[in-house]
Amino acid sequence: MIDVVAFLIENFPDIHECPKGQDLGYMLENAGFDDEDIGEAIMCVELLNESPILESQNLNSSQALRVYHDGEADALSAEIRGLLHFLHESGALNASQREFVVHALMHLPYDEMTLDKAKVLALLVLWAHRSELPVLIGDELMAVLHGKGVMQ
């Protein structure tokens, strides 16, 4: 999925310019991506296009500490939880965006819940919202798309 997200970010200025549904699938298939990566990417793009969780003002204005329930804590490594905490505390992700990333990660097979996938999902959310990132954080997240992830 990392290569698909890199392809989308490099080829479309934002999520609204991206083809929808089957058209996106055909385009990604013609670009040479495998079916599993295409399916994951389409699911995420569709959720980002229609998800009301991303507009939760109550969640975004809350000062509450995010506590992971047992299932999340078991599935998401300390590194992933640390990354999400860092991105939220630094202002790169708001609380709703962080929750989208957690939700998406929890729908991946257990062995695919990696730090790199978390970075890619964070980038996908930020791209969808046209969010601006501090340069160093943006560079660290983008490095995963080019095989040079260093934020570990």
* Number of extended strands: 0
pLDDT averaged over residues:
81
Oligomer: single chain
Alpha plus pi helix count: 9
The outline comes out as: globular
Q: Beta fraction of the residues?
A: under 5%
How many strands, which pairing sense, and closed or not: the largest β-sheet?
none
Structural class: mainly alpha
Distance between the ends: 19 Å
Order of helices and strands: HHHHHHHHH
Radius of gyration: 15 Å
User: What is the number of independent domains?
Assistant: 1
Q: Helix fraction?
A: 55-70%
Low-confidence parts, pLDDT < 50 over ≥5 residues?
A: none
Structure, described:
There is one protein chain. The protein has one domain (about 1-145). It is globular, with a radius of gyration of 15 Å. The chain contains nine helices and no strands. The longest helix has 16 residues, at about 35-50. The chain is mainly alpha-helical and about 150 residues long. The mean pLDDT is about 80.
